[in-house]
Task: inverse folding
């Protein structure tokens, strides 16, 4: 964006850039470190947000759905998995390694995953990988302070955007435009996010944006890549996984809070989509240990999280 000198009028290019600017959001779900023994395997799973993970003293094998061979991630490199991508991590060598992970959402437009849109590669290497790993360690160090101090929360968010900026240096699509049709359905997307516990139907969502159900279905699928009700179910499962990671609430409470008709149906759909049971998924991030601190939540967001939970 061209620099605008004080006292001068913006140029046409500057005004155009302002009209087409899209806000970015960073939301940390969890950050942590630990040891992983030889042969450790996460199992196939889908996360609700992007995953960044870097090993020390050993290597990870990152398997991604659709690939015939794993991506080897070595010390000084960072594995990157976009939100909702089926994957697994495996420790191939004979040694125990240390690992540092960051689970966070980078959003653009109306909740769309920047990591997936930008086609960031599954492994960040060289100076980029080293810079991202360093910033991940800084976020980990700020985790406890960010629960009570807004200044620490602000620094943590700045580091999150620094990680995104570094990762975009190796992206296939560092510049991206809003998907076709997104503007027409933005109100429906917002309605879904704000009413996950309520009954939602295609007709109801179509009425929110003033389209016929058939036309709405077509526009929605073109903009998001999935049918409206599949999107609703995906968002409910996304919210459920966030609650499993962030809270100690019972599975039946989470099922109810995310709009599922029964715990049985929730567990069946969860395992079918995520690849693991809710309990196994939770244990990967929140092992039974009263000494483990809960994931960082910025003080400025606590009230929002409490209201949504």
Result:
């Amino acid at each position: 964006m061209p620099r605008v000198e004080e006292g001068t009028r913006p140029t046409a290019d500057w005004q155009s850039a302002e009209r087409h600017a899209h806000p970015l959001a960073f939301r940390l779900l969890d950050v942590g470190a630990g040891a992983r023994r030889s042969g450790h395997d996460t199992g196939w799973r889908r996360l609700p947000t992007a995953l960044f993970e870097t090993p020390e003293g050993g290597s990870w094998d990152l398997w991604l759905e659709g690939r015939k061979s794993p991506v080897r991630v070595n010390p000084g490199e960072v594995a990157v998995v976009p939100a909702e991508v089926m994957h697994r991590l495996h420790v191939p060598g004979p040694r125990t390694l240390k690992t540092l992970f960051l689970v966070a959402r980078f959003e653009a437009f109306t909740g769309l995953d920047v990591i997936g849109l930008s086609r960031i590669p599954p492994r960040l290497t060289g100076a980029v990988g080293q810079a991202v790993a360093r910033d991940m360690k800084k976020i980990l160090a700020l985790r406890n302070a960010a629960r009570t101090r807004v200044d620490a929360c602000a620094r943590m968010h700045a580091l999150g955007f620094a990680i995104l900026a570094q990762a975009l240096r190796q992206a296939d699509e560092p510049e991206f435009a809003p998907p076709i049709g997104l503007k027409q359905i933005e109100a429906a997307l917002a309605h879904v996010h704000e009413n996950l516990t309520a009954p939602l139907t295609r007709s109801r969502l179509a009425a929110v944006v003033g389209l016929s159900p058939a036309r709405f279905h077509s526009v929605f699928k073109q903009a998001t890549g999935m049918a409206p009700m599949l999107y609703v179910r995906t968002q409910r499962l996304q919210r459920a996984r966030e609650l499993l990671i962030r809270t100690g609430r019972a599975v039946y409470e989470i099922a109810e809070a995310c709009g599922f008709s029964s715990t049985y149906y929730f567990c069946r759909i969860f395992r079918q989509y995520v690849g693991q049971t809710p309990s196994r998924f939770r244990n990967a991030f929140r092992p039974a240990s009263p000494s483990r601190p809960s994931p960082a939540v910025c003080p400025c967001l606590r009230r929002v999280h409490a209201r949504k939970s």
